[in-house]
Amino acid sequence: MLMSMQTPPQQSVKQSGLKKVVAASMAGTVVEWYEFFLYATAASLVFGKMFFPNAGSDLDGVMAAFLTYTVGFVARPLGGIVFGHFGDKFGRKKLLQLSIILVGASTFLMGCLPGFAQAGYWAPGMLVGLRFIQGFAVGGEWGGAVLLVAEHSPNKSRGFWSSWPQSAVPMGNLLATGVLLFLSSTLSEQAFLGWGWRIGFWLSAVIVVVGYYIRTKVSDAPIFLKAHEEIQANPKAGYGVAEVFRRYPRGVFTAMGLRFAENILYYLVVTFSITYLKFIVYADTARILLLLLVAHAIHFCVVSLVGKLSDAIGRKPTYMAGAVTGATWGFFGFPMMDTGNDLVILVSVTIGLLFHALMYAGQPSIMAEMFPTRMRYSGVSLGYQVTSIVAGSMAPIIATALLEHYKSSVPVAPYLMAACIVTAVAVLCLKETKGISLQDVDDADAAGTLAMNGIASVQSESKVG
């Protein structure tokens, strides 16, 4: 009992080394979410006019652009499955290096695409293809990045340390918003829509080189190396998606439920709000981006604090607080935006992101503690990414469709509340894992495997007899 309360030798790591792992994880995640959010913002501001000029109204063009945005979310589970399978087999580090190259190349090429006026339907076709590659790579990024940190972290502070890769998401969004704000402020609207937006995509190449270099300087955690040796010694040891569903289906579906409201809330606050402010409140682009810039900075500062809170009071109460408060945001967030007052709009967006942080910060530790090392990459990637198809990818489309049909934001609020109810139920089904040893999770998995094999052996002998 005493041993389980201590950090096992294979998980211990000096704090300086842990900070290096956190930096490597965040470096790539900042890059990839810079590029992912850059696309989301461009879909709201540019792509509707450039790639779908014949869509009808401006909102119709935005919805068409959001459909290409959805392609990335469809690709993410595929990336999670593929990267998870090979990440469990070969290691987190190698797959993370590959993911950053893929997303960087696809994003750079997006900046080179011709518009509909130059290439006709080939233009949106190429955009969709590159978006698929980008989403595929991001789908493999998250699981590897958070596990690289979670598997190196001490038991008692895993929530805090593994929340830092989550902080990289608002940091990436902060960079993307800052770049777009600078470009839209210094260029005329015609120049920004014509060619200025491309610069943000081309700048990704610089950030990719930095992120890739940092990731070459770390190694996989000792607990993974031990599990990897055991898999090599026992080829029959299962890993990958099929094994996760066979052994831990409840964990996968619980992870999906946890992700549902968090993902919808985030994309309503940071993506749909751009559309709402642009077409309903009639705010100018630079003003919208400046407000989001401040909100992302606050979000970045809060995420790690919430991660620390989950270590102090537990994963479940922190997450439930996010689900309950998140259910209320749609009822007051959009009316606050309707005032047109910059400060009130900023408070609205910031509150939404604070509610989001209560759910988002603890996800890496919660999901890492659900699955054993031999299939952890596959388990967390599957639970995290599949939900994105029906959650984050559809949220801006559903919200925009509701807005256009009802000419009001009111129907969006019950939509968000329903999502939060789903997540609250998932939290109730969750086991509290604060402070648990990942080695204990592996030991329990090994004991379960032996028990299952023993039952199978007895059944086989009885059939022979």
Write the layout of secondary structure elements.
Layout: H1 15-51, H2 58-90, H3 92-110, H4 116-119, H5 122-150, H6 158-186, H7 189-202, H8 204-215, H9 222-233, H10 241-247, H11 249-279, H12 285-313, H13 315-326, H14 329-338, H15 342-360, H16 363-368, H17 376-390, H18 395-406, H19 412-428, H20 438-464
Helix pairs in contact: 1-2, 1-3, 1-5, 1-6, 1-7, 1-8, 1-11, 2-3, 2-5, 2-17, 2-18, 3-5, 3-8, 5-6, 5-17, 6-7, 6-12, 11-12, 11-13, 11-15, 11-17, 11-18, 11-19, 12-13, 12-15, 13-15, 13-19, 14-15
Structural summary, described in words:
The structure is a single chain. The chain has 465 residues and is mainly alpha-helical. The chain has one domain: MFS general substrate transporter like domains (Growth Hormone, Chain: A). 80% of the residues lie in helices and 0% in strands. The protein is built from 20 helices and no strands. The longest helix has 37 residues, at 15-51. The protein is globular, with a radius of gyration of 22 Å. The relative contact order is 0.15.
Beta-strand content estimate: under 5%
Main structural class: mainly alpha
The ordered H/E elements are HHHHHHHHHHHHHHHHHHHH
Estimate the helix proportion, in percent.
over 70%
Can I get a quick summary?
With 465 residues, this protein is mostly helical. Helix content is 80%, strand content 0%. The protein has one domain: Up-down Bundle (Growth Hormone, Chain: A), CATH 1.20.1250.20.
For the structure shown, list the relevant keywords.
465 residues, mainly alpha, 20 helices, Growth Hormone, Chain: A
